[in-house]
Write a structure and sequence with these properties.
Blueprint: H1 2-10, H2 19-26, E1 30-34, E2 39-41, E3 49-55, E4 58-63, E5 69-75, E6 80-81, E7 95-98, E8 102-108, H3 109-118, H4 120-142, H5 150-159, E9 161-165, E10 170-172, E11 180-186, E12 189-193, E13 196-201, E14 206-207, H6 209-214, E15 221-224, E16 228-234, H7 235-244, H8 248-259, H9 261-264, H10 287-306, H11 314-336, H12 343-367, H13 369-372, H14 376-399, H15 407-431, H16 437-449, H17 455-472, H18 475-493, H19 502-535, E17 549-551, E18 558-560
Antiparallel strand pairs: 1-8, 2-7, 3-6, 3-8, 4-5, 4-7, 9-16, 10-15, 11-14, 11-16, 12-13, 12-15, 17-18
Helix pairs in contact: 1-2, 3-4, 4-5, 8-19, 10-11, 11-15, 11-16, 12-14, 12-15, 14-15, 14-17, 14-18, 15-16, 15-17, 17-18, 17-19, 18-19
């Protein structure tokens, strides 16, 4: 009993413990031994006891929000586990396994009920310690602070406080300076601005950082929609932890960029020293399949139309041939983007530009036909000046969407607008040659193969310039990109070289356009990587394992597996299954 008394007094959370209480505890405690790698308890099991490490070492393991096994802590002599289940619930949220042979002291639930009255001082101190430990576990598994060193995390947990809010409780109010940082533990909260709903916060999400980082009024009101529990950190403690850690400031800066884009528009992003050049290497490149399937379908329809005399299949052949090149090109750029958006929006931009841009362009070309007929140079210049703005109408609208915050968004959707225009223009060219089916199909095949050199590339370059103007107010870059797109378009339509060399001219112009597009795509990928790494520095430790991807449950963006926060919407990423703590 005296040995037990000395051991309990050595526990870090015990301030007082009498011999009388030691005698009472001695009657209810049991000795347990376990071998290396043996599991003492497993996550999800019914809880029936808590354990003190007497000798050896125990590893506590659980799953974080995205379902990855995470070592919460390594416990040596004098540490305790399983204590939270004594008073909070009956299901274990973590597993415990021996790092090496270990001796443990166990208190089961039945005995614990009697300890409440027989050793009240020990009981109260254990409960107080358990609540602090629960905060540490939450911070390790479901917070932006999860990658902090264990000692730092425990210190932060001691300074954090639980708050409980009933349904419809206003936590922060728009236009008021805040003095706390909030992390959601349970329940949901709704953010609104001027009465309009913005987003919903749930386990793993946080808010309140605007006042603490930017020293500005809260940009939205946060109100509980259910009974909820949050952890709060004071402004002083929050700013102190940012100053102590190297990566946290980058993470919070990226969150601020996502939520407060208007405020951060003129603020340059800090350049990270480390990049992940192969982060997109695991994505499926489905554009080749799209291209091959389209060409095979076109060839089959063309053969049936010409070879078998099935004239009714001529128009379907023209339609398939018109779409195959543009669709494959857009699919290629969509796959290159790491944080891909919803394909539905791509298809909408593709179709909307065809439905709206082509009529506008053809109407303007009719109005200026008198000028176009005067000179081939004027003809090509006016065609470019009319068609490029007609394709960019929907890009202007796209850039106003809050969710499209990345350079690759502008590039991919610019290409989609350009290729939608090209696909339907191809159909019109084919229909104009219906009197000669062979010529019609030759025209369609030629335009399909040369599609990557034309409209999609030019509009993607111009869209990049517009994105730089809208996001960074880069007027010179915008002017240069739009001018380059117009020049490439005009030169494509202008036959400078003799007829025999005209194909070479098109190849040279097309190569210049693709080279320019490749340069801005590389910049776009760097922009995405920078955001992903700033927000999820844990990805730097992924090693050589292949990259896989998951969808963000909030905005449906494709993000690298292992990311705990989505770089597009800033929300915590959750595993498909419900992960509890």
């Amino acid at each position: 009993m005296s040995e037990l008394h000395a051991f309990i007094l050595s526990l870090p959370f015990i301030r007082e413990f009498s011999l009388e209480e030691a005698a009472a505890l001695h009657r209810h405690i049991e000795a347990v031994t376990c071998e290396q790698e043996e599991y003492i308890v497993r996550r999800g099991e019914h809880s029936d006891a808590c354990y003190f490490v007497y000798n050896g070492a125990i590893e506590i393991v659980s799953k974080d929000l995205i379902g990855l096994d995470t070592v919460v802590a390594t416990l040596d002599r004098g540490r305790i586990f399983g204590d939270i289940t004594l008073h909070r619930d009956t299901v274990r949220r973590t597993s415990a396994r021996a790092c090496k042979d270990a001796s443990l002291l166990m208190i089961n639930h039945a005995s614990f009920g009697r300890i409440v009255s027989e050793a009240p001082s020990f009981y109260n101190q254990l409960i107080e310690f358990s609540l602090e430990r629960q905060k540490t576990t939450y911070l390790r598994l479901a917070s932006i602070f999860a990658r902090l060193p264990e000692e730092t995390l425990e210190s932060l947990a001691r300074r954090a406080a639980y708050l409980h809010f009933p349904d419809n409780w206003v936590v922060t109010r728009e236009g008021v300076f805040g003095d706390h940082f909030y992390m959601v533990v349970t329940g949901t909260l709704r953010a609104t601005r001027n009465g309009r709903p913005l987003e919903t916060f749930q386990k793993g999400d946080f808010f309140g950082e605007c006042s603490l980082i930017l020293n500005q009024e809260e940009p939205f009101t946060v109100e509980s929609t259910t009974n909820c529990e949050v952890l709060t950190i004071s402004k002083r403690d929050f700013q102190a932890i940012l100053q102590q850690q190297n990566l946290l400031p980058n993470q919070f800066e990226e969150i601020v960029r996502i939520r407060y884009a208007d405020i951060m528009r003129s603020h340059p992003r800090a350049v990270l020293n480390t990049e992940m050049p192969e982060i997109e290497s695991g994505k499926k490149r489905y554009h080749i399949g799209v291209l091959l399937a389209g060409l095979i379908g076109f060839a089959a329809l063309a053969y049936a139309s010409l070879g078998l005399g099935l004239n009714e299949l001529l128009i379907p052949a023209i339609a398939v041939g018109s779409f195959v090149g543009p669709v494959a090109f857009v699919a290629y750029l969509h796959a290159r983007s790491i944080l891909t958006n919803r394909p539905f929006l791509l298809a909408t931009m593709f179709a909307a530009t065809a439905a709206g841009g082509i009529p506008i362009a053809y109407w303007l070309e009719e109005l200026t036909s008198g000028l176009m007929d005067k000179s081939p140079y004027l003809n090509s210049a006016l065609t470019a000046l009319i068609e490029e703005p007609a394709k960019l109408i929907f890009v202007f609208w796209l850039l106003r969407l809050r969710r499209n915050r990345f350079l690759m968004d502008g590039i991919v959707y610019g290409a989609a607008c350009g290729m939608g225009f090209a696909a339907f223009e191809n159909i019109l060219y084919g229909l104009n040659h219906l009197h000669d089916p062979g010529q019609a199909l030759n025209v369609i095949l030629f335009r399909a193969l040369f599609a990557p050199f034309g409209h999609g590339t030019w509009t993607a370059i111009a869209a990049y310039g517009l994105w730089q103007l809208y996001v960074h107010n880069q007027k010179v870059v915008c002017a240069l990109c739009v001018s380059l797109a117009l020049a490439l378009h005009a030169l494509w339509d202008l036959q400078v070289l003799p007829s025999r060399s005209y194909l070479l001219q098109m190849l040279l112009i097309g190569a210049l356009g693709l080279y320019s597009l490749q340069k801005i795509v590389r910049q776009g990928l760097r922009d995405e990587r920078q955001s992903i790494i700033a927000l999820n520095p844990e990805l730097l430790n992924r090693g050589e394992e292949p990259v896989t991807y998951i969808d963000c449950s909030e905005c449906s963006s494709t993000i690298p597996f292992g990311s705990h926060y989505c770089p597009r919407c800033g929300r915590a990423v959750h595993a498909r299954e419900n992960v509890s703590f």
